[in-house]
Write a sequence for this structure.
C-alpha cells in the first residue's frame, strides 16, 4: 500500500513535468503492489489519471501553457480510438497485455533519455534564454 | 482563402490523427496518451514543448475520461485503488508542474527513465 502511494506521488510528478497522465507508473504499481490483474490495473489507472490531469492542466493554464480549444478538440477526437483501444485490451490475454505494457515502459524511458539529452543542464539557463 | 482552408483542413486532419492515436494508446494501455500527444504536437503542429505539455494534460482529462467510462462498462474499474493511487498523484502533479518551471528537469528525466526500466522488469518477472 505504501508502494502504491509512493508510485502515485511519483506518477504525479512525472505528469506535471512531462504532460502525461502518470498511468505509465500507476499501472505497474497497481499490478505489483495491489495485486490487480493487468486489465483491472489499466482500467483503474484511467480513473486515477483524471484528477491528476485536471489539476496539472489547471496549474499549466495559469502559466499560460494550455491551448484550450485544441485540448478539448483532441479529447473528443480520441473517442473512437479510445473505444477501439479498450476493446482490443479486453480481447488480449493478461500476459500479452502485460508484456506489451512493459515494452511501452521501455519506449517511454528512451523518450525521457532523449529529452534529457536535449535539455540544458540547468533550468535557469533556459529561463534566461526565454527572456 | 482556398489556401487558408487547405491549411485548416490539414490541421484538422493532424488533430484527428493525434486524437485517435492518443485514444488507442489510452484505451489499450490505461495511460493518458500524453506519450504520443506531446511529441506529435511539437512535431506536426509546431507547438512549443511547454505548451504541448500543458495542452496534453488538458486533453488527457477528456481522453482518460472517455476511456475510463468505456472500461467501466466492462466492469474493470476499481474505485478504491483508483483513489489510493490518484490521491497522492494529485499532490505529485502540483510538485511536478512547479519543478518544471524551476528545477533541473534533466536529472528528473534520467531518474524516471531508470525507474521505468526497473518497473518494467519487475512487472514482467512478477
Amino acid at each position: 500500500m505504501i508502494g502504491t502511494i509512493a508510485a502515485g506521488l511519483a506518477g504525479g510528478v512525472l505528469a506535471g513535468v512531462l504532460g502525461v497522465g502518470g498511468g505509465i507508473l500507476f499501472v505497474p504499481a497497481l499490478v505489483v503492489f495491489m495485486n490487480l490483474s493487468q486489465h483491472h490495473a489499466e482500467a483503474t489507472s484511467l480513473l486515477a489519471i483524471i484528477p491528476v490531469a485536471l489539476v496539472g492542466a489547471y496549474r499549466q493554464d495559469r502559466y499560460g501553457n494550455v491551448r484550450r480549444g485544441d485540448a478539448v478538440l483532441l479529447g473528443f477526437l480520441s473517442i473512437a480510438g479510445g473505444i477501439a483501444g479498450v476493446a482490443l485490451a479486453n480481447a488480449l490475454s493478461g500476459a500479452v497485455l502485460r508484456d506489451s505494457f512493459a515494452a511501452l515502459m521501455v519506449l517511454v524511458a528512451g523518450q525521457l533519455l532523449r529529452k534529457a539529452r536535449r535539455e540544458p543542464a540547468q533550468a535557469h539557463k533556459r529561463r534566461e534564454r526565454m527572456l | 482563402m482556398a489556401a487558408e482552408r487547405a491549411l485548416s483542413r490539414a490541421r484538422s486532419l493532424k488533430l484527428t490523427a493525434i486524437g485517435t492515436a492518443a485514444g488507442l494508446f489510452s484505451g489499450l494501455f490505461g495511460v493518458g496518451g500524453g506519450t504520443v500527444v506531446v511529441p506529435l504536437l511539437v512535431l506536426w503542429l509546431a507547438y512549443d514543448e511547454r505548451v504541448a505539455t500543458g495542452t496534453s494534460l488538458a486533453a488527457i482529462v477528456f481522453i482518460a475520461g472517455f476511456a475510463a467510462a468505456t472500461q467501466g462498462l466492462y466492469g474493470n474499474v476499481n474505485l478504491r485503488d483508483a483513489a489510493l493511487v490518484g490521491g497522492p498523484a494529485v499532490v505529485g502533479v502540483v510538485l511536478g508542474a512547479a519543478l518544471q518551471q524551476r528545477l533541473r528537469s534533466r536529472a528528473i528525466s534520467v531518474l524516471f527513465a531508470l525507474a521505468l526500466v526497473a518497473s518494467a522488469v519487475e512487472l514482467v518477472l512478477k
In short: DSSP finds seven helices and no strands in chain A. Residues 38-62 of chain A form the longest helix (25 residues).
